[in-house]
């Protein structure tokens, strides 16, 4: 009594509890003020500022963003009723306010609202007075002061599946590619090393010329770029950090005739990066003579050592090159080739079926043809694994140099990284590819080796370890005897489609784009589902349409809708997103939740008709409005992010959502070798 606080247990509860708690909180201490002309806001007043911060976090988890204004009314002494018919002088604490405005009022009305009938009706009337939705708000926090206080343990956080976690009411995603100062950015560019091999030798003169030009170019970009945030512009121009790097390293080694994991390959990697780093610095020194050193140079270690002034605080990095290496048609960064041959489904025949094409590494195909041994049969064999390490149809001299990611030991990957890292100013993007059978000890050994060899960081990926995957079908076929003993299934005749059906269409945000779901019913109940995502003709759209058709045929065949919902909900995709306060795992998950919401709304509609429309005077428009007001979130849905036990990943494959090809993991990024889809830059 007298110490009303929002405890951690309250914040760790679920959506339903949040809604009930916040409704009561706003009923007690909340107000609605303003009008359409001056602006409308929902406000929560408290003397306990921490309670407002907790409420703000809870609201943000429901998709409602708010602002807090401290000390709106200062502390004072005031005569107030004493409960005995008289008055007494009371000390009134400072009052603080949480304010919800603009579009967030509509989110508040939908997700929270009021129990109090008077406040609820006022909010409803005010929101209905808008002719269009209010503008979205920008939320910026100004840091007034940073003070060293104490030392705390800091932990790395990873939540499998969503690959994100809740941080002070915001959804945060892990990223650690490039260590930067606050508000700083880095201008990246990569040289295609495969272009500098002539007659099995490296053209050092041409590489030097390109390096000098590239460094000059990146420095120009810093000045020519249009910055959105002034603080980022100020910090970027104060340090002028560039990230000149490389790609096509694996292709270069093949042209030189060396294996990726050979001693020569490691030596070439170290020599190449030393050469580029040295020349990039020379270019930066020349620019400093003409244009001046970066503004903070006198605060640097270089200045303290008496080194020549440079234009850029750092010049080189090894960045992920997922997209630009596709454009340049070369291997990514300093990574090995992932697969020499893979299959791609991309062309339709006259009957509308997709034709499977073999995609072969350009250099491998040329060398096989030069030796007169190229054939579709051999390429099909190689496509099963992507590697030629144990393929006797490929000559030994080619097997030695055409090394793929899974032919390498973890130590091979680490040695290459160490070789490049010696001469890189910034960070390095490098991935160790583990087979599905890799153990915890295997990973531990790799991490320890990277640590002992002084790596700045290392990324590992075990095949099939991503939680967001599609299961392959096993080969456990029943015997002929088992099949003959099984009773013949009874036939089911789907009910015919009437000329007119009724339903609703809902728009749901998913990781693959906006999904439009139409649910129709006939006199028996739910009848069919239509779903559309993206442009017509895309693979993602085709898959969503196929799922909707299967749902429709199941509904028309009188399969209980609860069973359909149970099968759809919880299916994870490659990019879960938040939509109206709930996590949408994938388009199938969105379909399941849309069906569940439709059923919930129908129950509410039935109640409206039963309780408020017995005299049949209530109009159809009023019924529709009552239906829309009763959109409820997921039952027992919780916004608390938890870590789940990683399931067995045997027989699991990453499939591209666009073309269906097998996804690969390279340079810390999932990408498709078929249609080149990538989640990274």
State the gist of this model.
This protein is of the alpha+beta class and 681 residues long. The chain has 21 helices and 25 strands. Its cofactor is adenosylcob(III)alamin.
Q: How many β strands by DSSP? A: 25
**Model regions low in confidence, pLDDT < 50 over at least 5 residues:** 467-489, 614-620, 626-653
* Helix content range: 25-40%
- Which value, in Å, is the CA radius of gyration? 31 Å
Mean pLDDT: 81
Q: Report the sheet with the most strands, covering strand number, pairing sense and barrel closure.
A: 4 strands, antiparallel
Please explain how this structure is put together.
With 681 residues, the chain is of the alpha+beta class. It has 4 domains: 8-128, Homing endonucleases (Endonuclease I-creI); 173-328, no CATH class; 339-403, no CATH class; 502-636, no CATH class. Helices cover 36% and strands 19% of the residues. It contains 21 helices and 25 strands. Helix 9 packs parallel to helix 15 and helix 19 packs antiparallel against helix 20. The protein is globular and about 100 Å long. Residues 467-489, 614-620 and 626-653 have low confidence and may be disordered.
């Amino acid at each position: 009594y007298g110490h009303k606080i929002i405890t951690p247990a309250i914040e760790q509860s679920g959506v339903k509890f949040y809604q009930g708690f916040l409704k009561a909180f706003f009923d007690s201490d909340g107000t609605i003020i303003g009008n359409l002309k001056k602006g409308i806001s929902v406000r929560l007043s408290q003397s306990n500022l921490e309670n407002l911060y907790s409420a703000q976090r809870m609201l943000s988890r429901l998709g409602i963003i708010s602002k807090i204004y401290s000390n709106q009314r200062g502390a004072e002494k005031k005569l107030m009723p004493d409960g005995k018919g008289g008055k007494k002088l009371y000390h009134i604490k400072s009052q603080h306010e949480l304010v919800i405005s603009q579009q967030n009022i509509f989110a508040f009305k939908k997700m929270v609202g009021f129990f109090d009938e008077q406040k609820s009706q006022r909010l409803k009337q005010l929101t209905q007075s808008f002719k269009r939705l209010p503008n979205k708000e920008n939320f910026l926090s100004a840091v007034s002061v940073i003070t060293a206080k104490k030392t705390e343990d800091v932990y790395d956080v990873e939540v499998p599946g969503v690959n994100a976690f809740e941080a002070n009411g915001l959804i945060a995603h892990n990223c650690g590619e490039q260590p930067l100062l606050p508000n700083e950015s880095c201008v990246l560019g990569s040289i295609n090393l495969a272009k500098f091999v002539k007659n099995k030798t490296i053209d050092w003169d041409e590489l030097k010329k390109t390096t000098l030009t590239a460094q000059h170019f990146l420095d120009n970009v810093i000045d020519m770029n249009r910055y959105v945030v002034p603080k980022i512009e100020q910090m970027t121009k104060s340090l002028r950090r560039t990230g000149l790097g490389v790609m096509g390293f694996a292709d270069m080694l093949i042209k030189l005739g060396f294996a990726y994991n050979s001693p020569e390959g490691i030596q070439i990697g170290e020599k190449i990066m030393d050469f580029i780093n040295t020349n990039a610095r020379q270019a930066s020194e020349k620019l400093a003579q003409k244009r001046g050193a970066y503004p903070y140079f006198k605060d640097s270690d270089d200045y303290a050592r008496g080194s020549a002034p440079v234009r850029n605080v750092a010049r080189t990095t090894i960045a992920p090159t997922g997209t630009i290496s596709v454009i340049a048609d070369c291997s990514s960064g300093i990574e090995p080739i992932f697969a020499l041959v893979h299959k791609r489904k991309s062309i339709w025949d006259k009957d509308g079926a997709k034709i499977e094409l073999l995609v072969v590494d350009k250099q491998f195909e040329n060398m096989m043809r030069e030796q007169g041994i190229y054939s579709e049969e051999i390429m099909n064999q190689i496509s099963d694994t992507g590697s030629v390490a144990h393929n006797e149809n490929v000559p030994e001299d080619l097997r030695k140099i055409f090394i793929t990611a899974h032919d390498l030991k973890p130590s091979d990957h680490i040695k290459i990284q160490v070789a490049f890292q010696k001469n890189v100013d910034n960070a390095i993007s490098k991935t160790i590819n583990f087979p599905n059978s890799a153990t915890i000890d295997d990973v531990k050994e790799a991490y320890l080796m990277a640590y002992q060899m002084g790596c700045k960081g290392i990324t590992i990926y075990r095949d099939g370890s991503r939680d967001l995957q599609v299961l392959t079908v096993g080969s456990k076929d029943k015997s002929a005897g088992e099949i003959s003993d099984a009773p013949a299934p009874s036939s089911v005749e789907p009910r015919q489609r009437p000329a007119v059906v009724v339903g609703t269409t809902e728009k749901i945000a998913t990781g693959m784009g906006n999904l439009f779901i139409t649910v129709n019913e006939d006199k028996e109940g739910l009848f069919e589902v239509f779903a559309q995502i993206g442009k017509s003709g895309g693979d993602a759209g085709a898959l969503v349409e196929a799922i909707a058709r299967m749902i429709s045929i199941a509904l028309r065949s009188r399969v209980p809708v609860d069973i359909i919902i149970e099968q759809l909900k919880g299916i994870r995709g490659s990019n879960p997103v938040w939509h109206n306060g709930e996590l949408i795992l994938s388009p199938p998950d969105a379909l399941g939740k849309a069906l569940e919401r439709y059923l919930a709304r129908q129950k509410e509609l039935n109640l409206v008709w039963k309780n408020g429309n017995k005299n049949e005077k209530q109009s159809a428009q009023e019924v529709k409005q009552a239906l829309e007001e009763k959109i409820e979130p997921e039952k027992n849905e919780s916004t608390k992010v938890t870590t789940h036990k990683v399931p067995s990943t045997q027989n699991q494959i990453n499939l591209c959502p666009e073309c269906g090809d097998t996804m690969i993991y390279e340079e810390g990024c999932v990408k498709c070798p078929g249609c080149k889809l990538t989640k990274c830059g």
